[in-house]
Structures are given as structure tokens and as C-alpha cells.
Design a protein that fits this description.
heterodimer; A: alpha+beta; Butyryl-CoA Dehydrogenase, subunit A, domain 2; 3 domains; four-stranded mixed beta sheet; about 20% strand; globular; B: about 400 residues; Butyryl-CoA Dehydrogenase, subunit A, domain 3; about 50% helix
């Protein structure tokens, strides 16, 4: 057994970080200046680079203990520590699905998709029915939008089963509302479907290797947790640099115990969270799906601890941390969004406390 | 990071599991130390368990074979702890000897010292304690005042050591004393092996807020030791002590995380039972699940720490975080469980009059945040040496 990253894995994480922007470009507009809307970023180059890093990992069938899931998690962590133009978690989810379904791969080749799985991760909020040989979609979904797209991939309930639907983002029967900016260049899109007609190739069965939405949920949770680790590490690095250089009372503020100790606590939190995320990524039983329980624990830990790390970082930056021009608040918003996806703390806590009294099986 | 076991690791685990399954289960459970047992009973039980494990050859795994070990790396210590966790085995009361003093002697002891002391440490036939802290030298250990004055054939030690764990049961102590000027601080310290039965040694257990006394005052009143009682070199005691303190942050921490896990499961069991009987306060699943998640994360952080030790031969940056996280988590768990126990929890006493149950655990956890390096010292160490802040 091995409990540290290999040099290759560390290099992968560093290479992934180089694929992403180190600062948002363009800078999100200040709400007091003009309209909040921002044109979606062009992430095609970034998507290709990410694809090059992770696509090969999923070409063959997963084997218990191989590191493809860990490598994917490392890419998500690297994304958290930078400002990618796209939502990396959702990008990875779509690519992961495409490797498991030729129909999905074909649909994604023809159209750019958003992924609408994270906001209602358990049961579909959309329903599909077939009437007179025609598919019709009702219900709603929510998706994170960071780049231009013309379709959304969402789960829908159909005759007691879950299927995937590649739905248009606009057109007859689609009502669309958008809240932005949720974070730099990111908006939350809500789509209401009032029975738009769907072509047969827009309805795609779940990949055969996917037992249920719970599998996808576990993957989404783990990747989100990894991204939050990256966000926290970025904040810690910024704060430490600030503590070393910012001078008050004739010395660096990091020389004051009150500041130094808060930095130390941040490091402890980051390493604790990182440990569980990596463990969840290393624990897949050959399916490539992370262990459900460990992933849920990682998600809950990040849900609880990530916001405190980001707010502490803002605090330690003093008044300058509150400037719109300081990227800290963008990471804070990103953290706030990311921790609200893929479930709720209440539901995850209830799941985890079932059967917790039994002696552990290592 | 790869959790797949090698063939050798699997065979080790299987043999250990079979051996544990064959044991008659007469030891105290890991969480039994809160009820009717006095310190003496707990210590005796822990020592007996140590002896059992030692007879089976499951201690000193990383010690050289010539001294009774197996020369295995830290991964095997992880496997051992996982299997002990699966049966809720107790912690070793004699862990200071096998996990701190023994490895310290392996690093710094003379061949004669290793020959004389290591086997009895491993077999638990001789128990050790560490006499480092003093009333005026706690966090600032370099301020030690106990003197060791050279004589014709050895040294005479005089001073007052404090907070020595299990001294009342120990046969030997590793004592840190001053062999030079106070102004030279850590550069004028020497480590000695001192028999606890030596004339001039007086031990007084310190009653604590939880009603028993694991820690002791140790008074050294002109205690004579021979010249070969020096561990390492004269005035080179600081690196010896640092070895021990570093070890306390190494694989030795797996045991205490395991015990914390046992306590968490006990709390979860109590909660389920109480809720079924409708006698519990409403423990929200949120805090309980969060502590469970933290515990699991801490376990894997400790594994990463062991991994760094195996890969690089020395603890890495993560090592500094574990003790702080463990201490805080032990308090969080005790607080939550004590809240859940309500009025009964804060008023219950054991047969022998001390605190029991979660109240004892809560008080004990306050000590966890002090001993082995206070939370503040840990934070300063992290800030200074890991984050390289100018503090």
C-alpha cells in the first residue's frame, strides 16, 4: 500500500494547473458599474487541454486500485486553485458519461452541452412521456453555465426508469431564467420544460455500466470536494504570502501570533480535507466509481470547513480583502456555490449516521 | 496513493487476523477506561494486553530483528492498527516504552543499553516513563533546571520533574537534566537512564480534575547514576529528546486515533439505543456525521504522514498538523457526547468517586490539548517551520 502521491501524480496536478488561467479574464464587472451579465467565456482550448489530461485515463475498463479516479481528482483540485473558464467538475462529468455511452458521445460531438445533475442529485426533477410516438419533456432542471452551449444534458424519469435527455436551451416549450453572477463568469440557469417535443436521438439510456444516478452523484461530490480543496489551498497560499509581506507596527503581520496561528489552522484544515478526498479517490472497487460513504464524508467535511477557510482568508487580508479587485472574493463565491451542489448537509449527514455504530471493516 | 496491498502485506494481515481471532477475549474494550477502573486497574490491563501482543510478535514491527522486531516499515503498523480497530482492542498503557523510548534507544543508545533494555521494553517486563517537563519548563523545555553534576564514577541528579505519565508503575525513566549553564539552554542538556527504584527517587501521583492520577511529580534528591547511564553524549540530550518528541508525532499516533474511533462508535451506539428508548436528547445527525467525517479524514492524514516517513525517512509537513487536529477532535467528540448525556452526564460518578463516562473523557481531552505540545505550540511550529512565517 502507498499513502503518498507519486511523482507522476504530483506532476499531473502541476500540469493541470498550467492549463487554467491564474486570474479571471476578463475580470467580472463590478455590479455598481454596469450590467451584471457577462458573456460566457471561450473555454475550448482549456477543455481540450483538460481532455488530454483525463480522457486517456478512462479509455480502458477500470481496475480496483488503479489511479484513474485519483488523477481525475487531481485535475479538479488544480482547477480549484486557478480560474478556469469552464466548470471543470461538470466538464469531467460530461466526458466521463461520454466514455460510457456512444450515443452520448455522438450527442456531445454535435452539440455543446451543459450538465444538469448537480442541483437535484437524487431524483430527476424532469419527466419524460411518450405520446403518439413523440417524446415530451416536463418539469425543470438547473445547470451551472460558464461557457456557450446550446443543449443541456439532464436526467429525466420515464416509466419508472431514469434516462438522459439532451434538451435544447431555448425554443418552444422552454422557459429560461438565469441568475448571475453567482461567481466569476458563472451563472445558474433554470429551465422549465413545458412539453417541448424531443427527437428520438435526444433521449439516451443511462450507460450500462452506471447502476443509477447515485454513481454519478458520488463522482460529482468527490470532484466538487477536490475543487474545494484547490480553492482552499489557493486561499492559504495567498494569505501566507500576504502575512510575510504586509508590514504593520514595523514588522510583517505574520510575525504576530494571532495571525500566524490562524494560518496554521487553515493549513491543518486543508490537509485534513485533502487526506479524505484522496482516500475517497483511491478507494474505488474496480468500477471507477468512488466509494459512496467515504465520498459523502469528504463532501460533508468540505461543506463544513471550506467556507471558514475562505472567510478567514478574506479576514486576514484586512480591508483590502474586501475589494472587488481582489480575487479572494471570487474564490469565496465559487466556494459558496460549489458547496451547495450535489446534495445538502442534512441529507448527507442522515445517510452517514445510518449504521455508524458498527465496528469498522477495513 | 494506492490502497492495494502487496502479497506480503496481505499475508501479514491474514496471519494477524487469525491470531487475534484465536485469542480468548478477556481484555478490556478500548472504551472501558471510563467506568469503575482505577488507574492501577487500567494500567494492569493495558500491560497485560501489551504482553499478549508481544508474545505474538506483533510489537516493535519496525525494530531490527536482533532486538526482537521484524524490520518492517510503517505500512505494517497501519495494518496492525486497522486489525486492532476491528476488534476494539485497548490501547497499550506501556506505549511510552515500545513507541518512544525503545526507538530512541535504537537511535541514540549505546550497544550495551540496547542489549540491556530493548527486549524487556518489548516484552513489557520493564515499564518506562519519560521525565522531561518541570514546573518551570513545560512548553519551554530548554529551560529545564534539574541538574546532573558529574562525580568520580557517574552523575548526581537533583530536581523536580512534573507531568510524568505512569511514573508510579515504571521501573525506568528517561530523564532530561542540565549538565551545563542555564544560559546555554538546550546545548547543555543530557539524557539519562534512571532506575525508578534508585535511592532519592520519590514519586507522587497528581490528582486531576477527572478524579484519577496518571501523571506524577517525580522528585530526584541526589540520585546517583553511573556514567554509562548517559544516552547519546553529554550535552547532546536535546537531539535525543527531539527524537522522542518527533516519534510521538509519527506512527505512534495511529493508536490514539484508533481509540478515538472506538469512542465515536460507542457514542453512536449509545445514541441509537437512547433514541430507541426515547431517553436521549435529540442528537442532530449533522454534528455526529461531521465528527465521523473528521475522524476518517484524520485517519487518512495519519496514513499520509506514515507514508512520508516511509518514503523520505523523516516526518514531512503533515506530521505537524496531526496532533493538533486529534486533540481538537477529541474535545469536540467529548463535548457532543456529554451534551447528549444531559444532566446525568455531568453528575455521574464512578464507584471510586471519580468522573466517569463522557465527563471524564471531556476533562481528559482538555489535557490532550496541552500535553505533547500545546495547541499553541503546534500552531507556532506549523506557522514557523511549515509555512515559514516570521513568527
Amino acid at each position: 500500500m502507498r499513502f503518498t502521491l507519486t511523482q507522476e501524480q504530483i506532476a499531473l496536478r502541476a500540469k493541470a494547473a498550467e492549463s487554467f488561467r491564474t486570474l479571471p479574464a476578463p475580470w467580472p464587472p463590478y455590479p455598481g458599474d454596469r450590467s451584471l451579465a457577462m458573456p460566457p467565456g471561450d473555454d475550448r482550448q482549456e477543455a481540450e487541454q483538460v481532455g488530454a489530461l483525463i480522457d486517456g485515463a478512462w479509455d480502458s475498463e477500470p481496475v480496483a486500485g488503479d489511479d484513474r479516479l485519483l488523477r481525475t481528482v487531481l485535475v479538479a483540485e488544480a482547477a480549484g486553485g486557478s480560474f478556469p473558464a469552464t466548470s471543470i467538475v461538470e466538464l469531467i462529468i460530461l466526458r466521463w458519461l461520454a466514455t460510457r455511452s456512444p450515443e452520448l458521445a455522438a450527442a456531445m460531438t454535435q452539440h455543446r452541452h451543459l450538465a444538469a445533475f448537480s442541483c437535484a442529485p437524487h431524483a430527476p426533477t424532469a419527466r419524460l412521456r411518450r405520446a403518439g410516438g413523440v417524446y415530451q419533456l416536463s418539469g425543470h432542471c438547473q445547470a451551472i453555465r460558464t461557457q456557450a452551449a446550446d443543449r443541456v444534458l439532464l436526467p429525466a424519469e420515464h416509466n419508472g426508469r431514469v434516462v438522459l435527455v439532451s434538451a435544447r436551451l431555448a425554443g418552444p416549450g422552454v422557459v429560461r431564467t438565469e441568475r448571475h453572477p453567482v461567481a466569476a463568469g458563472t451563472s445558474l440557469l433554470r429551465l422549465e420544460f413545458a412539453l417541448p417535443r424531443l427527437d428520438p436521438d435526444q433521449v439516451i439510456p443511462l450507460p450500462a455500466t452506471m447502476r443509477s444516478l447515485a454513481d454519478l452523484n458520488s463522482l460529482g461530490r468527490l470532484l466538487s470536494a477536490a475543487e474545494l480543496v484547490g480553492i482552499m489551498q489557493w486561499a492559504l497560499d495567498r494569505v501566507v504570502e500576504r502575512a510575510r509581506t504586509r508590514q504593520q507596527f514595523g514588522r510583517p503581520i505574520g510575525s504576530f501570533q494571532a495571525v500566524a496561528h490562524q494560518c496554521a489552522d487553515m493549513l491543518c484544515t486543508v490537509e485534513l480535507c485533502r487526506s479524505l478526498v484522496y482516500a475517497a479517490a483511491a478507494r474505488h472497487g474496480g468500477s471507477g466509481i468512488p466509494d459512496r460513504r467515504t465520498t459523502a464524508q469528504a463532501w460533508l467535511l468540505l461543506w463544513h470547513d471550506s467556507l471558514a477557510v475562505l472567510t478567514t482568508a478574506v479576514h486576514l487580508f484586512g480591508a483590502n480583502g474586501l475589494r472587488w479587485s481582489e480575487p479572494l472574493h471570487l474564490q469565496l463565491r465559487r466556494c459558496q456555490l460549489r458547496r451547495q451542489l450535489w446534495g445538502t448537509a442534512h441529507e448527507v449527514s442522515n445517510y452517514l449516521t445510518e449504521g455508524v455504530a458498527s465496528t469498522p471493516q477495513h | 496513493m494506492d490502497f492495494r496491498e502487496t502479497d506480503q502485506e496481505s499475508r501479514f494481515r491474514l496471519r494477524l487476523r487469525e491470531w487475534l481471532a484465536d485469542l480468548p477475549r478477556r481484555w478490556h474494550d478500548a472504551t472501558d477506561d471510563t467506568d469503575d477502573d482505577t488507574v492501577a486497574i487500567r494500567f494492569a490491563a493495558g500491560r497485560q494486553w501489551h504482553g499478549t501482543l508481544a508474545e505474538g510478535g506483533w510489537l516493535g514491527l519496525d525494530w531490527p530483528a536482533e532486538y526482537g522486531g521484524r524490520g518492517l516499515d510503517g505500512v505494517y503498523q497501519i495494518i496492525l492498527n486497522e486489525e486492532l480497530d476491528a476488534i476494539d482492542a485497548p490501547q497499550l498503557a506501556t506505549w511510552v516504552g515500545v513507541e518512544l523510548v525503545g526507538p530512541t534507544l535504537l537511535r541514540w543508545g549505546s550497544p550495551a543499553q540496547r542489549e540491556r533494555y530493548l527486549a524487556p521494553i518489548l516484552a513489557a517486563t520493564e515499564v518506562w516513563c519519560q521525565c522531561f517537563s518541570e514546573p518551570e519548563a513545560g512548553s519551554d523545555l530548554a529551560a529545564v533546571r534539574t541538574t546532573a553534576t558529574r562525580t568520580e564514577n557517574g552523575f548526581v541528579l537533583t530536581g523536580h520533574k512534573q507531568w510524568t505519565s505512569w511514573a508510579q508503575f515504571a521501573q525506568f525513566a528517561l530523564v532530561l537534566a542540565r549538565t551545563g549553564a542555564e544560559a546555554d539552554r538546550h546545548r547543555a542538556l543530557t539524557c539519562f537512564i534512571v532506575p525508578m527504584s534508585a535511592p532519592g527517587v520519590r514519586i507522587e501521583p497528581i490528582p486531576m480534575l477527572y478524579g484519577d492520577a496518571e501523571e506524577c511529580d517525580v522528585y530526584l534528591d541526589s540520585v546517583h547514576v553511573p556514567a554509562d547511564a548517559v544516552v547519546g553524549e553529554v550535552n547532546q540530550g536535546w537531539p535525543v529528546v527531539m527524537t522522542s518528541l518527533t516519534l510521538a508525532r509519527g506512527a505512534a499516533t495511529l493508536g490514539r486515533i484508533r481509540i478515538l474511533g472506538s469512542r465515536y462508535r460507542r457514542f453512536a451506539t449509545e445514541t441509537v439505543v437512547a433514541q430507541a428508548r426515547e431517553t436521549s436528547h435529540d442528537v442532530q445527525s449533522g454534528p455526529m456525521a461531521l465528527i465521523g467525517a473528521r475522524l476518517e479524514a484524520l485517519r487518512f492524514l495519519a496514513y499520509r504522514k506514515v507514508g512520508e516517513l516511509v518514503d523520505e525517512g523523516a516526518p514531512g509537513a503533515i506530521a505537524s498538523t496531526e496532533k493538533l487536529l486529534w486533540a481538537r477532535l477529541s474535545t469536540e467528540l467529548a463535548e457532543l457526547a456529554l451534551d447528549n448525556a444531559g444532566l446525568q452526564g455531568v453528575t455521574e460518578v464512578s464507584r471510586w468517586g471519580g468522573s466517569t463516562g463522557w465527563r471524564r473523557q471531556f476533562y481528559r481531552s482538555l489535557a490532550n490539548e496541552i500535553e505533547g505540545g500545546t495547541n499553541e505550540i503546534q500552531r507556532t511550529t506549523i506557522a514557523r517551520h511549515v509555512l515559514r512565517l516570521p513568527c
